[in-house]
Specification:
This protein is of the alpha/beta class and 432 residues long. It has 15 helices and 18 strands. The longest helix is centred in the last third of the chain and has 28 residues. Bound molecules: zinc ion. The site of zinc ion (ZN) has 7 residues, from α12.
């Protein structure tokens, strides 16, 4: 499969790139969508969660679709030692990629507890797991040990993956190494240089909160290279800047495609309650009894109805004109009644209409229902905001764009280099 990556515009802070893989292509920066987000969208439109009929709505226009597979150390070992595990993982990839054929489909092998290096045999099985469903456009290869200083283990893993692809007749599939931003900046840079030397033209990264030094290394090393950089697992909000959407700051560090994924800490993915459970509970248990304790997707226990009347006002909605997650009150103070969004959920609505339509069941506040609608809205609003970012990068006004956003202005000090100074200048000074 022919892959080509070409920088279209280089700005002082950020860039636009054209990525072509086979017959599919797209321009960056853009927001990728995860299988979890697509499941939420499908649930919303298929189950008439709202009173309106959304059955004919097009799924999110994102150009990259990411299937996230959680792996603990024990899962890595089981992949090569238990027959059924490979089949289960293959089935998960295949079932999550039945739709969305216009998108570039990739897999994110998310290593939850990397206490041990991934053995070569597991890399081989992870490669087989990705080619068997015949639906992915790229094969990702995780860094076997992000704590290791040298790139040799990573290069050996890529070699194993390539040999596996050749052996199974899938040598046309591109390989995308998946590095971890928890890697120390110097070790990360060594890996990037080795990958450049090896002719690699797509590299994925796992987001880590506050890893700005590693992000700056990525920007320093790759911003002028024709290499597609994908950033996965971005935490939407950080405790120090809870209303600033992290996804939208990442083009500043030359990340081309960006996705967000999170599940409650300590809860195994396979044992998670269905995302939809809180809504069912709100519906079936209007008295807020203790029988149906469920967890929201950030791990907090949702006690239906009892606390939601009080907390609905604290629920935030992504607004692209402010570039922030705002409560209803903040939205009104900052932006008035208008929603500034043309997605299928917001069209023709004002802020009160949104909360009333999507945040109530039978006249009672329903927090999980509101969150579901907010999250689906955010995929669309965030994706179209990235289209604007592409324009601002083309005319070299991306830093101005960030400064125009009220929420970014408030949090500039939390982002190194963004405070009116060039990112590259800032980091070359601090590393000198
Ligand atoms: Zn919207």
């Amino acid at each position: 499969m022919t892959t080509s990556v070409k920088i279209l515009h280089m700005a002082e802070n950020g860039r636009t790139v054209k990525v072509s893989i086979g017959k599919k292509d797209f321009t960056t920066p853009t927001r990728a969508v995860t299988h979890r987000e697509l499941e939420k969208f499908s649930y919303l439109v298929a189950n008439h969660v709202s009173r309106q009929d959304f059955a004919s709505v097009d799924s999110p226009p994102c150009e990259v679709q990411e299937t996230v597979l959680d792996f603990h150390d024990s899962d890595v070992a089981a992949l090569t030692s238990r027959n059924e595990v490979l089949g289960q993982r293959t089935y998960a990839i295949s079932s999550r990629n039945r739709n969305g054929n216009s998108r570039i489909k990739i897999c994110n092998i998310l290593l939850r507890s990397q206490n041990e290096a991934i053995p070569d045999r597991a890399i081989e099985f992870m490669t087989i797991m990705q080619i068997k469903p015949r639906c992915l456009d790229i094969v990702t290869v995780p860094d076997p040990n992000y704590r290791h200083a040298d790139p040799d283990m990573l290069l050996a893993a890529i070699d194993t993956a390539q040999k596996t692809l050749n052996g199974y007749g899938f040598d046309y599939l591109p390989i995308m190494p998946h590095l971890d931003l928890a890697t120390q900046p110097v070790a990360l840079q060594a890996r990037l240089r080795a990958l450049i030397d090896a002719g690699c033209n797509c590299i994925a990264f796992r987001y880590r909160p506050y890893a700005y030094a590693s992000m700056a290394k990525v920007a320093d090393t790759l911003s002028d290279k024709d290499i597609w950089t994908h950033l996965s697992d971005v935490q939407k909000k950080l405790p120090s800047s809870p209303i600033l959407p992290q996804i939208h700051i990442m083009p500043y560090f030359s990340f081309d495609t960006i996705s967000s994924y999170k599940y409650p800490p300590g809860v195994r993915a396979s044992r998670q309650p269905e995302e939809v459970l809180p809504i069912v509970a709100e519906r079936s248990d209007p008295g807020g009894g203790r029988g149906g304790i469920v967890r929201s997707d950030d791990g907090q226990v949702v006690t239906p109805i009892q606390d939601s009347r009080r907390t609905l006002e604290n629920e935030t909605r992504f607004d692209s004109s402010a570039l922030g997650f705002l409560t209803r009150r903040q939205h009104r103070q900052l932006l008035g009644e208008s929603l500034n969004c043309n997605c299928f959920l917001c069209r023709g609505m004002d802020i009160d209409g949104f909360y009333d339509e999507y945040g109530m069941i039978d006249g009672r506040p329903a927090r999980a229902k509101l969150r579901l609608h907010q999250e689906v809205h955010e995929i669309y609003a965030s994706h179209s905001e990235f289209k604007l970012v592409q324009e601002r990068l083309k005319d070299c006004s991306y830093t101005d764009y960030l400064w125009e956003k009220p929420v970014v202005q408030r949090y500039t000090t939390s982002i190194p280099g963004i405070n009116g100074q060039s990112r590259l200048d800032r980091f070359s000074q601090s590393s000198a």
